[in-house]
Amino acid sequence: MAEAMVLFLRFCFQLIALPVYLLSLLGAWEPFCKKIFFPFFMEMLTAGYNKKTAEQKRELFRNLPEFANSSGELRLLEIGTGSGANFQFYPPGCQVICTDPNPNFHSSLSKSMAQNQHLQFKRVLVASAEDLSKVADSSLDVVVSTLVLCSVQSVEGVLKEVLRILKPGGAFYFLEHEAAAHSSWDYFWQQVYFPTWKLIFDGCCLTRDFRNDLERAKFSEVNLRHIRVPLHWTPIQSHIIGYAVK
Ligand SMILES: C[S@@+](CC[C@H](N)C(=O)[O-])C[C@H]1O[C@@H](n2cnc3c(N)ncnc32)[C@H](O)[C@@H]1O
User: Fold this and answer.
1) What residues form the membrane-spanning segments (predicted)?
2) Number of the ligand 1 atom closest to the C-alpha atom of 175
3) In the sheet that 140-146 helps form, which strands lie side by side, from edge to edge?
4) Which residue, of 60, 92, 119, 173, has the greatest Cβ tally within 10 A?
């Protein structure tokens, strides 16, 4: 019965979003989404999202300096940097490499860089997190991912790359929205919105579960917790937050 309701409501939302589906069929939506809509949407969302998660982000990134190398440098790479939502939470002097497969965040990213002069920006790479071949093995102290694993092609492939580029003892920090408890109404609505949300928001999957991926990857230590971010009336309230040590 619940499954039939999901399918029916999903169909209703697909009807409402019919123009987007038609544009996608014509091959026009994806380029528009990547070039204009999604970078603009993320720039709008970031201030509000950071306000709601400021306390959690501050707490998450508090121990970043503990992972600095013996010269006191903290070499950090962010996957799916987008418009640079996390820069304000990194400690002064932190050396940052930004990576994202979508180069169209350029203007909002440049703005964030200019506003965060306490950091040293080293490189901006156009690269997906599944293939960071331009980054040497064991060359980083920290890798960060926020709201990215929902959109990647292979979570397992990303975690393998993260482990490759981290130094032994380096840390992977994450804050990701995830599938709600399967018995909840939140999960019901996530299933309803899933295909339309994925199409509109550049491949963002609502029902991914990252705990198993993180625990299966070969980290020596995984610290995580599930939290709820009060993004009312959205299907992305359930989050996973923490860090894993190589
Ligand atoms: C929702 S935005 C989050 C941006 C930023 N991390 C933040 O917290 O605001 C998702 C980002 O992931 C990027 N992305 C999508 N697929 C990716 C992949 N395979 N590897 C790395 N980043 C990816 C998108 O281009 C986009 O910048």
Assistant:
1) 7-29
2) 8
3) 120-125, 95-99, 75-79, 140-146, 166-177, 238-245, 221-228
4) 173
Mutate which of 51, 56, 100 for ligand 1 pocket (most atoms within 8 A of beta carbon): 100
Cα gap 198→30, rounded to integer Å: 11
Atom of ligand 1 nearest to the CA of 201: 1
In whole angstroms, give the CA distance from residue 167 to residue 137.
Answer: 8
Per-residue confidence of the chain (246 residues) as pLDDT tens digits? 789 999 999 999 999 999 999 999 999 999 999 999 999 999 999 999 999 999 999 999 999 999 999 999 999 999 999 999 999 999 999 999 999 999 999 999 999 999 999 999 999 999 999 999 999 999 999 999 999 999 999 999 999 999 999 999 999 999 999 999 999 999 999 999 999 999 999 999 999 999 999 999 999 999 999 999 999 999 999 999 999 999
- Domains of the chain: total: 1
Report CA-CA distances (Å) from 218 to 163, 183, 212, 213, 214. 8, 30, 12, 10, 8
Alpha-carbon distance of 130 to 159, in angstroms, equals: 8
Q: Ligand 1 centroid vs 177 CA: distance in angstroms?
A: 12
List the residue whose alpha carbon is closest to atom 10 of ligand 1. 148
Tell me the CA–centroid distance for residue 146 and ligand 1, in Å. 8
Which residues form the domain of 167? Answer: 2-245
- For ligand 1, the distance from its centroid to the CA atom of residue 96, given in whole angstroms, is 16
The CATH number linked to 217 is 3.40.50.150
**The model's pTM:** 0.96
* Cα–ligand 1 centroid distance for 181 (angstroms): 24
